[in-house]
Amino acid sequence: MQQLCRVAVLSILCLAAATSPAAADPRNADMDNWSAGKLRARGEEALSLRQYDDALLYYNKAATKEPGNATNYFKLYKVHSRMRRFMDALGDLTKALEVDPSNLDYRTQKAKLLKSLGQCDQAVIELQQISDPPADVRELMDESKQCEQDIAQAQAALLNRQYREAAMMFQSALRHVEQASDLLWQKAQALFEVGDYYGVISDTGQILKQHAQHLDAYRLRGQAYTWLGEHELAIKHFREGLKLDPEHKGCKEGHKFVKNIERKKKRGDDAYAAGNYKDAIENYWNAINVDSTHLAFFRPTLLRIVEAHTKLGEHDMAILEARKHVEHMETVEGLWALADALTAAEKFDEAVHTCQRALEVATDSDKEAAKRKVQEAQVALKQSKEKNYYKILGVARTVTAKEIKKSYRELALKWHPDKNADNKEEAEKMFQDIGEAYEVLSDKELRAKYDRGEEVFDNQGGGGHGGGRHHFNAQQFFHQHMGQQGGGGRGRGQQQFHVRYG
What we know:
Layout: H1 2-19, H2 21-24, H3 36-48, H4 52-65, H5 70-82, H6 86-99, H7 104-116, H8 120-128, H9 135-159, H10 163-174, H11 181-193, H12 197-210, H13 215-227, H14 231-244, H15 249-273, H16 277-288, H17 295-311, H18 315-328, H19 332-344, H20 348-361, H21 367-384, H22 389-393, H23 401-414, H24 424-441, H25 444-451, H26 474-482, H27 490-495
Helix pairs in contact: 1-4, 3-4, 4-5, 5-6, 6-7, 7-8, 7-9, 8-9, 9-10, 10-11, 11-12, 12-13, 13-14, 13-15, 14-15, 15-16, 16-17, 17-18, 17-19, 18-19, 19-20, 19-21, 20-21, 23-24, 24-26
């Protein structure tokens, strides 16, 4: 195997020589007639100028002229090390030691390189061949033995499925090395098993920088992104692997899994956007049930289901699903979703307590938002005891402007006094309240003040929200907002007002 490696190395060197600028330089036309000493001198000059391909050409020719001179192979080792072609460098040192096995410097450099590549057991074997080693070599031996021990323990732990211990031991071993993709790969596998997906992404990223065609690194990185809920990035990595091998089983399965979830989720999103909340809920559950252990997808999607139930007025179901989310793992987002569901169900006291709990568990970055949510819940509680504009229009506090307008139109037509001759007094009061609620909630500035618990009308005084001091003409407001559908001014709109009630 070592002989095959050396043949491969020499083939690469010959190819580099054929394309080297030095080979094309007319001053080097008689290079074949140069002495090995002159070739080494030119190699030193090229190396100092970082002209690595030229240096390889000169040293390789010197080695051809003097195959029994270990210096030539040691020079090649230096160039390959500068180029970070460490396996080539290792082959050079091996050849140098075949020619000069008693050279302490060569042996020590080979042991250092083996250790840096994670082949610590081989480094120990090399160092054991040195009799009466100096202090620095003894220190290198101790480090190599420790590295060898860490690797052996890490691999044993990995084999025994003691993944957390294996990851720790691989990390300890990696402190002794510079470039050991095989150790990094084994560590990444252990991290995946303990759910440290960010660690997996970091380690496989390093592997792919060194080995851009490492198929299993693409597969494992894609799986890590999957379980973090980063589905777009997961698909990207699975596709990169499939470009290299369209039949790679792991990448094919991972890609199919994520695409299946995303396809069902998109159906849910489309249904939600269209206002088909029952269909949205069904499709979201279909996506979740592809793998209900996929919590990074399950949990945020469950909050979307909570919102859909609220939109449908299914408040008990919304609260039930939100409580499941919180009971599984208490997070600020889950507590806020529960508070919103409680508010929509007019359970304002519970909503306040839930927002206060969210403030207790909030991180520093969420504290201000959590304080605002507490304030909003307290305002909703206060407004529930007064005139509640959201309740009057039958909408949630998170309602959109479009939904406010739709609800107003439906309720204004339903409660118009001309349509309710049998209960005109009640209809007039409802019609007044509906118009007043729309006046406030359809105006961004007034709605913001109302949501903050502030008085929304300058002449409102101490009468509370809509407390009777605001003079509001519901009929005139109705004509202004319902009478003109094709444009034109307000006065013209009143003149052309026609509504069909029956």
